[in-house]
Each structure stands twice: as structure tokens, then as C-alpha cells.
């Protein structure tokens, strides 16, 4: 492609997963940024060995720095398109060129890469699948967003659209926040692109599924209330201006 593609990976103690993930990424993107969130293993050395640009982002929100790492990585990337992927290699990295080509052809600002197929051979993945389904339903009811994967860690965003989004979550809630922020923004075009998700091969997930799921659910409720309050303020200000004009 005639333009640059950047990949951003947030990570914490991912030394076992990074070699395969970075090898796959190096084949399809121009820049790989690994944002380390305080690893105590050799993740940073491994990332550098495989040619990634390494950034340290120590901030955490309630013990988790996933969101801070992604925001920092995206802001420090240089590509025309930014694609985020998890360090564990669960996302279909080989589809990145196809996804970016679609975004360029259709002039799409934000693509959520929804995991429509997933290995469900163990109980953890069944719990995760049920939780994601319930959160997808909540997103539909509260925001009207017909998502198939509100929690996907893989998305593609056009760099010049990043500044139009309001991103504040430093923990796991950055994942639903960025999709909701893109979907409700009239100046950002949003679509979903199907990918296949697989289970982590190496290392352990940092998430406690039921706890993270409940937190996501409450976050989306708070986000809906906040957006409604903002809309009411805008309407009130508009009404006040019109009333002032009529009085004059």
C-alpha cells in the first residue's frame, strides 16, 4: 500500500506470546508499537528483539493499564491507519491488509473487528462468549449499536479521526468506550468487520471474567447517562439562545 499502517499492542508480562504475534505483524504492517504496562518479565527485551518500538506506560486504573497503554500507543503511532491487537495473538492479524483496504476504499474512520467465530472448547471461552453476548445486547438497547463484539481488542482507526473521540478509560473499559465514542459521533463513520478469534496459546489472561464483565456493564450504563446529560445541556443551551434572540 502507498500509505503507512501502524499496529499497537498493549502488554503486561507477555514474553511467551510476543514472538509469534510480532512475527505475524511484521509481515503486514509498517510500524509495530508495543506499549508495556509495567512487565516484570522480559517482554520489553523480546519486543525490541523483534523490531517493535517500545513505549513504557506505567499508569493504571484500579490495577489495570490496558486503556492507558492503547491510548498512548495510538497517540505515538505514525501510520495513516492504526490497528490494535492483543499480545496473545488471538486476533486474525493476517486480515489487517484486507481491513485497511476496506477502510480506504469505503472512506471508513473506525472499524470494529468483531470475533464472529471462536473456539469454545473450554469453559472459560463459553463464559466469555455468554458475557460478550449480554454486553452486545446492552449496547444495542442503550445506544442502538448493532455490534457483534463490543469487547473486541482489535480495531482499525484512521489516524486523523482519533482526535474526534473522547477517550478517558485507563483500564479494560477503554474497549467499549472507543466503540461507543465512535458510534455516537456523527463525524466518525463506524462499521464492523468479521474476524476469527482464537484462544490464547501462551501465558495467562490478566482478566477475571465475571468481574470485568460486570464492570463493563456498569460502565456502559454510566456512559449512556453521561451522553444523555450532554444532549440535554446542548438542547437547553440551544433553546436559551433562541429565546434570547426572540426577546431581543
Folded structure, characterized:
With 248 residues, this protein is α/β, with parallel strands linked by helices. 44% of the residues lie in helices and 17% in strands. It has a single domain, classed as Spore Coat Polysaccharide Biosynthesis Protein SpsA, Chain A (Alpha-Beta Complex). Strands 3-2-1-4-6-5-7 form a 7-stranded mixed beta sheet, sandwiched between helices. Strand 2, helix 2 and strand 3 form a beta-alpha-beta unit. Helix 5 packs parallel to helix 7. InterPro entries: Glyco_trans_2-like, Glycosyltransferase_2, Nucleotide-diphossugar_trans. It comes from candidate division WWE3 bacterium CG_4_10_14_0_2_um_filter_41_14. Pfam families: Glycos_transf_2.
Short description:
Residues 6-161 form the Glycosyltransferase 2-like domain. Helices cover 44% and strands 17% of the residues. The protein is of the alpha/beta class and 248 residues long.
Descriptive terms for the model:
seven-stranded mixed sheet; globular; 248 residues; 44% helix; single chain; alpha/beta
